[in-house]
Design brief:
The radius of gyration is 17 Å and the shape is globular. It has 8 helices and no strands.
Length: 198
């Protein structure tokens, strides 16, 4: 049980970082939006291990070839866009309107289902590998997957609140910091893959 809890906490860290980033960058996020986003992250963290377990070890070598590249690409694309927009904005507050397509706030606005879906997939790909590992060990997956999802949900709720609180402190640098966080997560995932630690 302790091992599963530690795995759950480890897998939830990427989603936590994204939650903090969204809390910093996305303006006017209400509690209902944060809870819905946390539920999305938790749901995908539950579904991915189950999917990995069902795929089984036969597909592990195939999935290992590109899963981390997908996560790296998605997070770097979103993060890079956020940094670019925040640095190139000429009018104060121009990059802070989530209703402007392509704006920094729009790219991190977890009220948008498409953005939320992309972030949920990108941060849960590691959980797919965990499911594959459980499959190879012959360990039932439902209880561990449920714990991973539940832990991720609560960790993300805390992440949104933390990001919301430190956002005003960072002021106009918030969007740049948020984008760099996403890029850092993507680089970390890619580095783990290339170094063979995952």
């Amino acid at each position: 049980m302790l091992q599963t809890l530690l795995i759950s906490l480890g897998l939830s860290m990427d989603a936590f970082a994204v939650s903090v980033s969204s809390g910093i960058c996305a303006k006017e996020i209400k509690a209902v939006h944060a809870i819905r986003a946390a539920a999305f992250f938790g749901l995908f963290q539950f579904l991915m291990p189950v999917a990995g377990w069902l795929l089984g070890s036969a597909f592990k070598s195939y999935i290992d070839g590109f899963d981390h590249w997908i996560a790296f690409g998605l997070l770097s694309l979103i993060g890079g866009k956020m940094v670019k927009e925040s640095l190139s904005a000429k009018e104060e507050g121009a990059c802070e309107d989530p209703d402007v397509p392509g704006s920094v706030a729009a790219m991190s606005d977890i009220r948008d289902l498409r953005t939320l879906l992309v972030l949920s997939i990108a941060t849960s790909i590691d959980a797919l590998a965990v499911g594959l590992s459980y499959s190879m060990l012959g360990v039932p997956i439902l209880v561990p997957a449920a714990m991973i999802g539940i832990v991720t949900f609560f960790v993300c709720v805390a992440g949104f609140e933390f990001g919301k609180r430190i956002g005003p402190v960072l002021e106009h640098r918030a969007e740049t910091v948020g984008g760099l966080v996403l890029i850092a997560i993507g680089c970390k995932i890619l580095f783990q893959h290339l170094s063979g630690s995952v």
